[in-house]
């Protein structure tokens, strides 16, 4: 757990910054994947069954 880290060591701040940056990058990739999946769902052509039930 991050809160149990000895903050008297010199390398805790750079590691904290790296963890924040990596979290932002992972969030960006997750958001990109979600947007691409939604765009694909909105662009796809309806199937024959879906067209038939809409009439």
- Distance separating the two termini: 57 Å
Shape call: rod-shaped
How many alpha or pi helices?
A: 2
- Major sheet size, sense and barrel closure: none
Q: Which ranges are low-confidence, i.e. pLDDT below 50, for 5 or more consecutive residues?
A: none
**Secondary structure category:** mainly alpha
Strand content: under 5%
Q: How much is the radius of gyration in Å? A: 22 Å
Number of strands: 0
Mean pLDDT: 82
Order of helices and strands: HH
> Helical amount among residues, as a percent range?
over 70%
Structure report:
The model has no long low-confidence stretch (mean pLDDT 82). The longest helix is centred in the middle third of the chain and has 32 residues, at 12-43. The protein contains two helices and no strands. 71% of the residues lie in helices and 0% in strands. The chain is mainly α and 55 residues long.
Brief write-up:
Helix content is 71%, strand content 0%.
Write the layout of secondary structure elements.
Elements: H1 12-43, H2 48-54
Can you tag this structure with a few keywords?
55 residues; mainly alpha; 2 helices
């Amino acid at each position: 757990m991050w809160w149990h880290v000895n903050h008297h060591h010199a390398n805790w701040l750079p590691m904290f910054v790296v963890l924040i940056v990596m979290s932002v990058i992972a969030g960006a990739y997750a958001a990109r994947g979600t947007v691409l999946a939604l765009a694909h769902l909105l662009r796809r052509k309806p199937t024959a069954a879906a067209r038939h039930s809409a009439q």
